Amino acid sequence: MRIALDAMGGDYAPKNIIEGAALGLKELPEIEKLYLVGDATAIGTELKNLNCQDPRIEIYHASEVITMKESAAKAVRHKKDASICRAVELVKNGSAEAVVSAGHTGAAVAASVLKLRTLKGIERPAVACLLPTESNVFVLIDAGANPDSTPENLIQFAIMGAVFSEHVLGYKNPSVALMSIGEEDMKGNDVTKEAFKLLKASSLNFRGNIEGHDLFEKRSGRLRRFHW
Amino acid sequence: MRIALDAMGGDYAPKNIIEGAALGLKELPEIEKLYLVGDATAIGTELKNLNCQDPRIEIYHASEVITMKESAAKAVRHKKDASICRAVELVKNGSAEAVVSAGHTGAAVAASVLKLRTLKGIERPAVACLLPTESNVFVLIDAGANPDSTPENLIQFAIMGAVFSEHVLGYKNPSVALMSIGEEDMKGNDVTKEAFKLLKASSLNFRGNIEGHDLFEKRSGRLRRFHW
Lengths: 228, 228
What we know:
homodimer; alpha/beta; four-stranded parallel sheet; two-stranded antiparallel sheet; 8 strands; 36% helix; 18% strand; elongated
């Protein structure tokens, strides 16, 4: 796999990001290529400090950084040479297959939408997060890409999460639940109540509302491919 | 203090509610009167089982119960003789000074609004919850009365919370924070971003956005009257 890593994204970037990259390269032979995207001098210094000379690394210079204080959409539009923008472009032009960033989530989402667009029928991207339960893992989606989602957005996220659960994690007929403020069918705010109706009418394996304390319960689904 | 207790509200009502009432009466001499509102026969049986004959108790019969599965507004309108409705009426007619219920939050809120109305300038009621920090307590408001709040609602809740903090808890010039998905000024969804502006323009001691992990931090405010 070929990965573009936003070397400037995160609270202790680029130091901790490069340290993580060096560790990852040691442990993961399946990485064929790792683009370290960001300030070439700073990245070079960190690699030298770590005495890391892995031939799979390629430094890809980007002169700008989007900080946590910036408005995502504005920053992505104005900072053409930001590390996260350049990293996403590496996926767009086929050099890389995935982007990894620990930086501004909104900026990563905005750069991805602007440059890669969403799938047909999907209006907004979502952050999918794998979380452990007592017995296996589940997908929390959306975990932070959208501060305001419509019921239609939530259905599209549910479909993407179910497809991911089935085809990447290997769950058969994965169940979908809606996180709300109560388990009863009519509990929720205007958005989740409408989403409940849409999910119930869909062909998804919908099990209803759940609350936060239900997230980590033991599940019967058998995880075939993924190992935590 | 004279209290109306919804004896039928809660997962293990009336048994656990009556047990709690008996314990409370033993420990709190400031309770002058305790109305146990609900099915008189069931309440009588529980009191007998506990051998509780406290003279401050008055059983106030109500023939109906609002269950967790019901729509709050509808149930309050149709079940005139529900325990929570009768308990609120005891406050309205001056018999009691406060209602306590461990039952359907929405029903307690709906009954209160319908029968007692809100204060002038306050459009919606809010649930205020006292939570401990390392050093004292703080008020979380709204803690569940409204699934959908407008920015204007949030400002009104902030004012009520600040007044409560100052006059009930004894904090001087209590600070107000807005719980959001990031600490930076522009983080949040449409509702919290607008509320941020209104709070900043208000005369409240507004300290900005906070995240969940900030809630329990040590605070400098000195708590004068309240003991946890």
